[in-house]
């Protein structure tokens, strides 16, 4: 790098060699680097440390011993039936939410990409749930999916009993559909960006070969947007792993009987409500491993097909 | 990598504001009559109604004195009232909560714009040691689930720094939006190198080049990044919920959520009051988005996230 520029002199040359051609860049990025260190790197290391120690909240300034306990917190977490249930719930959530999100986003983005009329209206319609606070939208979903709500009134005798959000079997699937609906606009946006990079010639030659619309969708569009699909799958998996607001509000704190509790909800319960930050930190790290494992599995699946 | 489709929004070929790029008239006429075109339009409009209906229902529900969940109740003809807004305003200080939301969101936007622009500019235009590694971090951070760091951040911010019930504590974890840093970098990257080279030959310092040459050219990126950054803190629930115990410090998302989970059961028309609060919380975000929706295009944001 330093070779591109003629050396101005010994000292200047040495600065360039160590810091690069524009050392002024370092103070410019410094605030951001400090932010990343303080809000991501250090807390991550701290989380690992907490999870291996007997950590508890104390009055500010108090000096207490926090002995190293090895894997005790992890053993407690893995033996906790509530935690196991929460991880099972999140798996159900992901199995419904991720395929639904990916499929609907791709189909709607493809349709939107070809639509000429009323595009602004359609775009606004699909993005509005994404830009609105979940807390606000949860209010109206509670109203709609209430035992005596509009959805059940319309369904009449077909309405599930107990109703959607208080039904052990249906609570988590309903949350999964809610989140898919809420986030879909964002993923449509990602697919629309990817669709613009598909060369038009591919569609033209498919048409020349007599391919139907469905065939050209399957043989041209789907393979061409595969990188975007990988991203949609990873991001929706991560959003799912972060699930908190919806079970907290939509199903009244992960009910019924913990059927819609999520790991982050349990982190909040154990860590903040019950004062066991060490156990909560261990749940967080198990969740990291879980997300990484699910992402790797997804990658294998996506690459094979 | 992602530079190909990251261009200022004016040039975006997909925005509906660029009619010049549409296919010629015969293609449009053909598109209008095909069966597939009709099916596509029907699917798109049915989907759009499904997406918009809850918002319509939210608004109607907030105006009804009595909750009417029958299908006919979705199209009320009379009995609309603002009583629910009065009810939620008595339970939750709407104005105070909105101000808290505004300070929280404004603080995040301000620090993201100031520090994010500096970082984005350096990442795009300056060669310094560690640039590649830092750029890798910008991408990595976007896929780290924030809530995993909940406990250590809570311990640090609330216990170690004593920032519970403070705006600073709310803002800190969101202070610089990494997605915005990425958007800034992409936009600075597209400016022609000669511009910078000649300014440097004239002896302008990097900060001066950034302020008087680069920044005026990327104003659309600023707006896109501000919109994108707005959504996060305005809608964030868990973090401010954790660190604010005093009601007068809570942003509206938190006070409304507390109302939903605690108070609603005792109110005369709980759904009405909840929906009224939901309308107040949703309105600023939806209004901003509709007003600036052309800055919210796939070209502007999609490219920035394709990492």
Summarize the structure.
The complex is a heterodimer of chains A (305) and B (307). Chain A has helices at 10-19, 25-51, 72-78, 81-114, 119-131, 134-145, 150-155, 171-195, 200-208, 213-224, 226-241, 245-249, 263-273, 277-304. By secondary structure, chain A is mainly α.
CATH class of the largest domain in chain A: Mainly Alpha
For the secondary structure, the number of strands of chain A is: 0
Query: Cα distance, first to last residue of chain B?
Result: 8 Å
According to CATH, the fold-level topology of the largest domain in chain A is MetI-like fold
The total count of helices of chain A amounts to 14
Largest sheet entry of chain A: none
CATH class of the largest domain in chain B: Mainly Alpha
Characterize the main sheet of chain B.
none
Poorly predicted ranges of chain A:
none
Strand-residue proportion of chain B: under 5%
Task: Write up this protein.
The complex is a heterodimer of chains A (305) and B (307). Helices cover 70% and strands 0% of the residues of chain A. Chain A is mainly alpha-helical and 305 residues long. Chain A has two domains: 2-51, no CATH class; 73-304, MetI-like fold, CATH 1.10.3720. The longest helix of chain A is centred in the N-terminal third of the chain and has 34 residues, at 81-114. The two termini of chain A are 42 Å apart. Chain B has 307 residues and is mainly α. Chain B has two domains: 34-81, no CATH class; 87-305, Orthogonal Bundle (MetI-like fold), CATH 1.10.3720.10. In chain B, helix 5 packs across helix 8 (178-190) and helix 11 runs antiparallel to helix 14 (270-291). Residues 1-32 and 302-307 of chain B have low confidence and may be disordered. The interface between A and B is large, with 107 and 108 residues.
């Amino acid at each position: 790098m330093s070779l591109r520029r003629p050396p101005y002199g010994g000292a200047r040359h040495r600065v360039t060699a160590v810091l690069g051609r524009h050392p002024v860049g370092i103070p410019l990025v410094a605030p951001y680097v400090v932010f990343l260190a303080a809000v991501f790197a250090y807390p991550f290391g701290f989380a690992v440390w907490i999870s291996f120690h007997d950590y508890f909240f104390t009055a500010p300034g108090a000096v207490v011993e926090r002995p190293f306990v090895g894997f005790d917190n992890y053993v407690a977490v893995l033996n906790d039936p509530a935690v196991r249930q929460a991880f099972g719930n999140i798996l159900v959530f992901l199995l419904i939410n991720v395929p639904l999100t990916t499929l609907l986003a791709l189909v709607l983005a493809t349709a939107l990409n070809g639509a000429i009329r009323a595009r602004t209206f359609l775009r606004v319609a699909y993005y509005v749930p994404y830009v609105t606070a979940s807390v606000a939208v949860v209010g109206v979903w509670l109203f709609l999916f209430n035992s005596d709500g509009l959805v059940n009134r319309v369904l009449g005798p077909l309405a599930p009993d107990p109703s959607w959000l208080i039904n052990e079997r249906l609570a988590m699937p309903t949350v999964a559909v809610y989140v898919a609906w809420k986030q879909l606009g964002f993923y449509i946006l990602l697919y629309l960006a990817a669709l613009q990079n598909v060369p038009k010639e591919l569609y033209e030659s498919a048409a020349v070969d007599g391919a139907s619309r469905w065939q050209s969708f399957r043989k041209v569009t789907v393979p061409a947007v595969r990188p975007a699909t990988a991203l949609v799958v990873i991001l929706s998996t991560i959003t799912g792993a972060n699930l908190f607001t919806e079970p907290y509000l939509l199903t009244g704190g992960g009910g019924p009987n913990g059927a819609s509790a999520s790991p982050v909800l349990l982190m909040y319960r154990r860590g903040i409500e019950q004062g066991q930050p060490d156990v909560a930190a261990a749940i967080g790290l198990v969740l990291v491993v879980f997300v990484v494992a699910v992402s790797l599995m997804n990658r294998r699946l996506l690459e094979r097909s | 990598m992602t530079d190909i489709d990251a261009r200022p929004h004016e040039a975006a070929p997909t925005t509906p504001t660029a009619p010049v790029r549409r296919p010629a008239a015969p293609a449009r006429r053909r598109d209008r009559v095909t069966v597939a075109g009709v099916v596509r339009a029907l699917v798109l409009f049915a989907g759009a109604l499904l997406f918009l209906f809850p918002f319509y229902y939210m608004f109607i529900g907030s105006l009804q004195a009595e909750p009417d969940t029958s299908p006919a109740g979705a199209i009320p003809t009379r009995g609309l009232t603002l009583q629910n807004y009065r009810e939620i305003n008595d339970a939750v200080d709407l104005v105070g909560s909105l101000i808290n939301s505004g300070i929280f969101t404004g603080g995040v936007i301000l620090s993201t714009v100031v520090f994010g622009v500096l970082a984005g500019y350096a990442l795009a235009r300056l060669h310094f040691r560690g640039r590649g590694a830092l750029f890798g971090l910008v991408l990595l951070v976007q896929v780290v689930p924030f809530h995993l760091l909940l406990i250590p951040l809570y311990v640090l911010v609330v216990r170690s720094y004593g920032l519970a019930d403070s705006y600073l504590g709310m803002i800190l974890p969101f202070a610089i939006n990494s997605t915005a840093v990425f958007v800034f970098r992409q936009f600075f990257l597209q400016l022609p190198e000669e511009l910078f080279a000649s300014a440097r030959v004239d002896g302008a310092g990097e900060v001066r080049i950034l302020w008087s040459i680069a920044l005026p050219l990327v104003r659309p990126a600023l707006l896109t990044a501000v919109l994108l950054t707005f959504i996060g803190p305005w809608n964030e629930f868990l973090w401010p919920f954790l660190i604010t115990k005093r009601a007068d410090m809570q942003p509206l998302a938190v006070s409304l959520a507390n109302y939903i989970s605690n108070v609603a059961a005792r109110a005369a028309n709980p759904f009405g009051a909840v929906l009224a609060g939901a309308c107040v919380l949703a309105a600023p975000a939806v209004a901003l988005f509709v007003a600036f929706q052309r800055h919210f295009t796939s070209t502007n944001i999609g490219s920035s996230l394709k990492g």
